[in-house]
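Translate sequence into structure tokens.
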Amino acid sequence: MRERKKQVNWSELCPDLLRCVLERLSFTDLNRAKSVCSSWHSASRGCVPKRNQIPWLILFPCDNNNNNNNGSCVLFIPDDRERVYRTRDLGVDFVRSCCLATYGSWLLMMDPMWNLNILNPLTGERIDLPLSEPVVPEIARPSLKTASSLACLWVDEKSKDYLVVWSMSQTFMVYTKKGNNTWRRMITNMEWSKSDKHMVYNHRAQKLYVYRNAEAVRIWSFREDHPQRVFEAKYYYGIGINYSDFLPLWTQENMLKWREEEDAYLREFVDDGWVNIATTVSGQVIKVSSVMQRSKRWLFSISKPQGRTNRWGRTNSLGDEALIFDMGITVVAKDIPGVMRNSIYFSGVGYGRKNPDHIFVFNLTTNKVEPLPPCVFSSIPFSDARWFFPGLSD
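Result follows.
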């Protein structure tokens, strides 16, 4: 009688052996291995993954009865285009919350009561922030129910130090950081017609850059205990959107071509588009203009401050870097598999985040959209999508 071979159960491998293997994996592969089974997840504790070098896309679930396992997010990793991954079940409270910002592996989440927390969807770690109510006067509370909320986030992956800046409605900008047990007021602004549009934080410079509607970029330094306004002339000039941002540079020689492009642009005009700001690897602030035309064609334009002129000049190239639009930063992309240099990782603006046609990688070299594979959007009914950068370190 032939002896039956004992079937191997991979979940019963020696933990020390597992740990030796897991420690050699990349950031992406280690997170994949953690999800195999509980014993592999347990063995991975304490393993320090190699630095991740590519952005991931996270899709948030809809809060409805048609979405099975609706407490989980879906993850798309660009170097594995044939499949998507699910996070652990993050609970009902998570599904009812919305994501305001991302940094590294962390998400800044706001619940229906306007309370904020910082969540790591890969590990389930959560940092509760101070309750929002004490900083909101009675007169402003009704407007908070309908006003948009703007925020930026920074988290140190190792120490869990963090900084959150939150612009509520059009009148209050507050911040909190590790060690604070309350929100602190940065500014009270009664110019109701001018609201904050976008903000990014550069931890290396410890500066917050805030873009307001058609105005210059305002700068705040966080080097001291309380943030201080910084005045830098090269950012004074307004950076509102202009349709000429999307046309060829005008010269006497290409005047006819410029007029043809202008006519084509105006025929395809839908709205005024959007302006965002970002900081590059070197710490330079850039202006990112975007617009979608009637034919659903997307256009992007990149501008940088130009020397002593204190004006914004078009460059339309990120060189060997890639822009993670949702985070407002660029990352090194040269010779890194899975990330495209001179490109924009885009997930829409405003309510467009729910539209698969608004989630893509835009190649600035070819001025064309690189769509994501169908498996991404067929995985779950989603309510929001964000590019983020797990394992990011300053």
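Note: Residues 137-147 have pLDDT under 50 and may be disordered.
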